């Protein structure tokens, strides 16, 4: 229950204005309020699952009711405060790095500290600030950590629209941002939803995906997506997709890079999102030669830790197979041709075969 001072609806309007100002102070680019209505997405989501487009991410098939009914995820929820935070440092190259085949390309959200920790901390700070104003209230903060349709929530909050590449787009910043939510029992005034998806006839993200992972607009086959293959997927990467992966060793930004709305991207000044260990420009050979101790040290507090050392080496072996045929690259692969991991060995053999084919064709 709100304190008596908030009995006037105008007081709630004033509170929302303050929440949006505080969000900016805590480093968010925008905050918007929504009373989510997610049941309308149930059939589409279940059809996507039925086609096995979630690949090996079995957890996406769990908690169906909770995903579409926020009140079951956090009892008492009346509104969701949807927030976004920019993550792309101005100094970091994107397209240029993809063209430099001897250097690794890592999805730009993963170059620095794990965003979950940073954004969760800021969300909690914002929730505490609200608590200072209204007293104790029921809330819970989430950062990609629960069964939430966060892009749909953000679209309903009027933050932007879901593009054909399934990412949230906004004319204010393209898609180079991360989302977070605060579920609250406060009856806050809501923002108007986005009514139009401004992709028009553009299909750049669909036609220029390296692995043709889009079945149709707004439908992604995760089993073909480089982000899934290099992060979530366990086991061998399908042979027919390896050459298409280029130098992408952790995640993929291509469907953002080709989107016309990218020209409106805003850069971050957050220190935690700045690149660590030269990961925005490191060469593939150097990364491939990391031993497990070095990998664990250099990925401490990083989202890259999620993929694990074995899959890290698997991914880089593929990228080395796609790299120019040079003595240093072949030597690095040969040094690992008999590693302790058969998974790595398989991809190293494939990579060496690619260089052998090129040498024979020269």
UniProtKB/TrEMBL annotation:
Obligatory cofactor(s): [4Fe-4S] cluster; cob(II)alamin
Free-text remark on how the cofactor is bound: Binds 2 [4Fe-4S] clusters per monomer.
Domain of life from the UniProt record: Bacteria
All copies of domain 4Fe-4S ferredoxin-type, residue ranges: 186-219
Binding, [4Fe-4S] cluster 2: 209, 225, 252, 255
UniProt GO cellular component terms: cytoplasm
Subcellular location: Cytoplasm
E.C. number(s) listed in UniProt: 1.17.99.6
Catalyzed reaction equations: epoxyqueuosine(34) in tRNA + AH2 = queuosine(34) in tRNA + A + H2O
Binding residues annotated for [4Fe-4S] cluster 1, in chain numbering: 199, 202, 205, 259
Pathway(s) this gene product operates in, as recorded in its UniProt entry: tRNA modification; tRNA-queuosine biosynthesis
One annotated GO molecular function: metal ion binding
GO biological process: tRNA queuosine(34) biosynthetic process
Pfam families per UniProt: Fer4_16, QueG_DUF1730
Broad class of enzyme this protein falls into: oxidoreductase
Record's subunit section: Monomer.
HAMAP family: QueG
Designated name of the protein: Epoxyqueuosine reductase
Organism field: Marinomonas pollencensis
């Amino acid at each position: 229950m709100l304190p008596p001072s908030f009995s006037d609806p105008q007081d709630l309007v004033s509170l929302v204005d303050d929440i949006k100002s505080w969000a900016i102070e805590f480093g968010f680019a925008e905050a918007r309020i929504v009373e989510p209505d997610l049941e309308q997405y149930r059939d589409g989501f279940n059809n996507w699952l039925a086609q096995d487009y979630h690949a090996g991410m079995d957890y996406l098939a769990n908690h169906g009711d909770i995903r579409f009914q926020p009140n079951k995820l956090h009892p008492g929820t009346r509104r969701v405060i949807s927030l976004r935070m920019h993550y792309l440092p101005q100094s970091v190259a994107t397209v240029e790095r993809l063209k430099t085949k001897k250097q690794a390309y890592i999805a730009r959200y993963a170059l620095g500290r794990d965003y979950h920790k940073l954004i969760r901390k800021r969300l909690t700070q914002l929730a505490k600030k609200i608590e200072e104003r209204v007293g104790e209230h029921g809330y819970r903060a989430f950062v990609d950590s629960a069964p939430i349709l966060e892009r749909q929530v953000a679209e309903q909050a009027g933050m932007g629209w879901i593009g054909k590449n399934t990412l949230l787009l906004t004319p204010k910043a393209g898609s180079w941002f991360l989302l977070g939510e605060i579920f609250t029992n406060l009856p806050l005034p809501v923002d108007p939803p986005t009514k139009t998806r401004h992709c028009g006839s553009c299909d750049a993200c669909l036609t220029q995906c390296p692995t043709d992972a889009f079945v149709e607009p707004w439908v992604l086959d995760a089993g073909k997506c480089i982000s899934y293959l290099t992060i979530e997927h366990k086991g061998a990467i399908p042979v027919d997709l390896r050459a298409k992966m280029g130098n992408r060793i952790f995640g993929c930004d291509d469907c953002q890079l080709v989107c016309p709305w990218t020209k409106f991207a805003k850069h971050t000044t957050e220190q935690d999102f700045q690149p660590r260990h030269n990961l925005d420009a490191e060469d593939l050979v150097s990364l491939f030669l990391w031993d497990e101790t070095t990998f664990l040290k250099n990925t401490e507090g990083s989202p890259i830790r999620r993929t694990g050392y074995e899959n890290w080496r698997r991914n880089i072996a593929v990228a080395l197979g796609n790299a120019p045929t040079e003595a240093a690259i072949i030597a690095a692969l040969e040094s690992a041709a008999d590693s302790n991991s058969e998974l790595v060995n398989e991809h190293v053999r494939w990579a060496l075969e690619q260089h052998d084919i090129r040498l024979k064709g020269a």
